[in-house]
Fold:
Amino acid sequence: MTLAPVVWLASYPRSGNTFVRTIIYHCFGVRSASIYDEDMGELGPSRLIGHIEQSPDGTIDFGDEPIRLIKTHHPPQDDRPAIYIVRDGQAATMSMFEFYGKRMPLPVIIEGRNLFGSWGGHLRRWRPLERQSTLFLRYEEVLADTRSTVDRLAEFLNLKPKSYAVPSREDLARADGKWIRPEQKRRPQLSGPDLEAFWRKNGEQMLNYGYARLTGPDAPAELNP
Structure:
């Protein structure tokens, strides 16, 4: 029996990995897994994103899926094809801080003294714009134009879309509220010394990938052309 090819779905934490998995499930009917066991938690929105949980022995049964799509936040393990999602590092950093219930201090996240490293360090390790067989997606563009994202995924994965309909953000948030936050919930932003520290650590990669500096505690980050 020939195994379906592996495609990594890679990103820094809190950068839209779950949403892209949701798109792939609803638009192509393809389920996906994760290198992390119990990744979605007991009450997570697994049924909405097509999550395949690991068996107790760590194996993953993909059944007859045409590809073995596997989520990871870790550095690349090999040169197999990958979809890499990037999100404004300022937003991803604060979302990660909130996701861990503020148990992981913000400076630890900014400096990368954690399991996943820093936002900029993650990009340096993956090099998604130079890496072979890698589809580069921006989270901001995925949200703004999901239909075009589906078309790009279709070409990269060599799959035909079955639909362009994706559950709303509110539907996904109601399933748990942790992996995908309600849209109306105010999002804290980096400011003051934390913002300065972030740019000292990650500024080069922010500029390399076209992201602008926040100009105030409530100002949205802008994506440069």
